[in-house]
Amino acid sequence: MIHRAKYTARGYELDSYGHVNNAVYLNYFEQARWELFRDLKMLDLIYRSGLFLVVVDVHIRYQREIKLFDEIEVATRPKRVDPYLIFEQKMVNLSTGLSVSRATIKTVLVDQQRMPQDIPETLKELY
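Predicted structure:
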């Protein structure tokens, strides 16, 4: 399953070189994951479980710059590798069709005491 989200580069995201700051790429990837959670109704399942999803590892590859008003699409492929939920993400410039960045985000669910927990069965069904 691949989830897709589209964004437009905004002026306040630019750095002194006139392209989107490298940290903003992480924001795009994170927002795409939030939208995936919303669309799959995962937020409700996580909230009801009393657990929190925490990023524990990020690997990102910057390939090309994004400029003001560039339209981009983030494709997110979730996968389960117990006890982790891993998100493989790819960002593409829609006007050029070229990949601008790739990322692999590893997350784990923790309880109120911040102790890692197994993935609840209700979430396993989504993967």
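Summary: The mean pLDDT is 92.
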